[in-house]
Amino acid sequence: MRIILFLNNWGGWQVARWLRERNEDIVGLVVQPESDERFARQIQDALNLPVDRVWRAPELREPETVARFNDLKPDIGISGWFG
Known about the structure:
There is one protein chain. By secondary structure, this protein is of the alpha/beta class. Helices cover 37% and strands 25% of the residues. The chain contains 3 helices and 4 strands; from the N terminus they run E-H-E-H-E-H-E. The protein has helices at residues 9-21, 40-47, 63-72; strands at residues 2-7, 25-31, 54-56, 76-80. A 4-stranded parallel β-sheet has the order 3-2-1-4, with helices on both faces. 23% of the residues are buried. The mean pLDDT is 98.
C-alpha cells in the first residue's frame, strides 16, 4: 500500500518510526510550515525520503503539489498530530 503521511509533533514522529519499522511503502510526507512545525527533522530523519517527496502544508494549495501527489499514486493518506 502506497502511503502519503501528514505528520507533526512527537506523536507524528512515532507514527513515522512505527511505519518505517514495518517497511511500509511511504511515498510522500507533508509537514507543517517552519513556524508551526514540531519534530519535523526527526520525522524526516526517520523516513529518509528524498527532498522532492517532502512538502510543507501551505504547498497543498498549489496545483503542482496536487499533480505530484497524483503522480505518486498513493492508496491512502495518514494524518498524525497534523492539525
